[in-house]
Design goal:
324 residues, alpha/beta, D-Maltodextrin-Binding Protein, domain 2, 2 domains, 6-stranded mixed sheet, 11 strands
Length: 324
């Protein structure tokens, strides 16, 4: 090896050591044992698939096993409680923001404060769609709204999250449209009823609706995401359709405890971005109706705050007060 190459190699090693040494010791030595991702959804969901793909790749990067633990139920509170009570920086919450942004308006008391959930990194956006039964004979959001106006009190709707409940119910109330929200414990049953025409509008994840769309039982009329996702269905966003108030992004990402050091959060966010750049990860998540969109903790937090504000505005319209 020439003297010049030795000098270059020595300089590179020195710079790497300086960069690594600049990190606080906690960020350097973490993880010291296995890492756990707690999910508020069950196995097989889009979020579950995403978490397991990232867990597999991060295991290699971190040198410790990354285990996914499903804790569905309780409107996400079961998983959030398990995450908080763990009380350590090796237990993280991997969840859609919609798991908790509507909580203050749905529950009188909560076992946590929103500052207990510190955004580390956004990972993906779930593609969320608005669907109707073919028998309704409407092809757009505009036609649906015109039908609701012409036939007040005759249309029913269901959404897959508490957030979209507030957004759509609030919009209907704001505009004076009489459309009835029908609650379901099982969103699959709601889609079955949509196909039979027992409800006339359903809003939820494309991944859940896709088999019904392919079978011709339901029809998509819009995407609620703020932008048309690559690989998404050929239907307009609600903003393109002229209804920006109905925008909802299915934000999914990683959260840490509030005691976690900022340097460690930044390191984890960088690792998330690295994994998210893998074309195989992008391809596999796209197939599940998700858009890989890694973002920093600050970007993720800003998006969550915007979702909270949208829910709060519509909750006020509906006369729903936040829990104390």
């Amino acid at each position: 090896m020439t003297l010049k190459r030795l000098i270059y190699l020595g300089a590179a090693i020195t710079l790497s050591a300086l960069a690594f040494g600049a990190l606080p010791s906690q960020a350097q030595t973490w993880p010291q044992r296995s890492v756990k991702f707690i999910l508020p959804l069950g196995p097989g969901s889009g979020v579950d698939i995403s978490a397991r793909l990232f867990a597999d790749r991060l295991t290699g990067r971190w040198g410790q096993p990354v285990v996914v633990e499903n804790r569905p139920g309780g409107d996400g509170i079961v998983a959030i409680t398990a995450f908080i009570t763990a009380g350590d920086d090796h237990t993280l919450l991997y969840a859609p923001a919609s798991s908790f942004t509507a909580h203050p308006f749905l529950h009188e008391k909560l076992p946590y404060e929103h500052r207990d959930l510190v955004p580390i990194a956004r990972v993906s956006n779930t593609i969320v769609v608005a669907a109707v039964p073919p028998s309704l004979n409407v092809a757009s959001v505009k036609e649906l709204m015109e039908l609701a106006k012409a036939k007040p009190g005759t249309l029913n709707f269901n959404t897959a999250t508490g957030v979209t409940d507030f957004i759509f119910d609030g919009y209907f109330k704001t505009t004076g449209l009489s459309v009835t929200r029908v609650p379901y414990r099982d969103t699959v049953q709601a889609l079955n009823d949509l196909g039979e025409g027992r409800i006339q509008l359903w809003v939820g994840a494309l991944a859940i609706a896709r088999p019904h769309v392919q079978a011709g039982r339901v029809k998509l009329i819009a995407i609620t995401n703020s932008q048309r996702p690559a690989g998404g269905p050929d239907v307009p966003t609600v903003t393109e359709a002229g209804y920006p108030e109905l925008t909802f992004d299915g934000l999914t990402g990683l959260f840490g405890p509030r005691e976690m050091a900022p340097a460690l959060r930044e390191r984890l966010a960088a690792d998330i971005r690295t994994v998210a750049a893998d074309p195989e990860i992008v391809s596999r998540l796209t197939a599940t109706g998700q858009v890989v969109s890694p973002g920093s903790g600050a970007e993720f937090a800003a998006s969550i705050d915007a979702q909270r504000n949208a829910v709060a505005n519509f909750a006020k319209t509906l006369g729903t007060k936040p829990s104390q």
